[in-house]
């Protein structure tokens, strides 16, 4: 479905590729992309250049690629600090196994990590950002981006939680279900907004793709 004579804003989200150090609770820990991570990101976007602007998290695993892509295609890049990943407190830099061992049983759960995934609203990472506070941060930056880039085609380079919480804003999912999509490294998603003076249409066109559907390149 498309609205006639609508003003269309298209937002592509891409999660960063693999960072140096492999899988761990990274959150606000600032590691750059690994060699594989760069390959994942470059393969995902290919030669596609249909964006008017790129907006990126300030963390290295996002912003270094965003600036490289912007330079390659002469696309302006803006850094938005509030797109940074959720701060994971005392879990930062630990693997899943390390965090489970270091933060053992709480209430009926065998460890604090299991408790978080089962009930994130009540068991946030120790000394970390809560879902409620992170959701407010993402809501605010998301509103700013939509207002600043209305009618444009934008690529957001961000993180697993950040991308999921943006999608949550669009789908109006319950906060406790915000991490609904297990987006792969360099996974791409597309949101489309159409508005007229009397109506509005919001669509999640696709989620977690490994590439972008082919389209003519800008001249």
From TrEMBL:
Coiled coil: none annotated. GO terms for molecular function: phosphatase activity. GO terms for cellular component: cytoplasm. It comes from the Bacteria. It holds the Pfam family His_Phos_1. This is Alpha-ribazole phosphatase.
